[in-house]
Design brief:
The complex is a heterodimer of chains A (109) and B (113). By secondary structure, chain A is an all-beta fold. Chain A is 0% helix and 60% strand. In chain A, strands 2, 4, 5, 6, 9, 10 and 11 form a seven-stranded mixed beta sheet that branches. A four-stranded antiparallel beta sheet of chain A has the order 1-3-8-7, with no helix packed on it. The radius of gyration of chain A is 13 Å and the shape is globular. By secondary structure, chain B is an all-beta fold. Helices cover 0% and strands 58% of the residues of chain B. Chain B is globular and about 45 Å long. Chain B starts with a strand and ends with a strand. The chains are: A mainly beta (109), B mainly beta (113).
Amino acid sequence: DVKVTQSSRYLVKRTGEKVFLECVQDMDHENMFWYRQDPGLGLRLIYFSYDVKMKEKGDIPEGYSVSREKKERFSLILESASTNQTSMYLCASSDNRAFFGQGTRLTVV
Amino acid sequence: QKEVEQNSGPLSVPEGAIASLNCTYSDRGSQSFFWYRQYSGKSPELIMFIYSNGDKEDGRFTAQLNKASQYVSLLIRDSQPSDSATYLCAVILFSGGYNKLIFGAGTRLAVHP
């Protein structure tokens, strides 16, 4: 079975902090994605990566950046956390079918 | 127009009935279509995928794809209370030279005894 692991299940951070969300997959997938999920808005694509060191902006990249130094790891970075970034963050890994990590519920206070 | 559209629901069906969930998409070039189930507080779980026009069956689930109408649906036969969840439709769009996986907002299904 595909395993996608996100580093934290719950996080509480202060406004202005730099926040790192880590995602690791074990299936040698080329494509990885970061989404945020908010009530009534569904899953919105923040960034995705189709290869090591390659990244593309999704629909809502503002306030975020990403890093993919190794194929199995895709990190989402909040450069300066703000309260409107409080959300559920979901990482997915794909070989065409996408598989999700368990999600990180981030609260920015 | 949203790239992937679903009725938010809730869709309420009695136990044992057929639940029909619908999804439309805007990009005629889309080739891959997925249905995910998401229980409250959990991450989405892939339950069906379909690439060709027609029907694909897996147990109580049937995915139907009509590319001419840009329409994909999920039928759940013999619905059970445990099927109560949000169902997300997802489509791979080819945009800017890359494949993007885009989700609809989801349809909430409630199966009542």
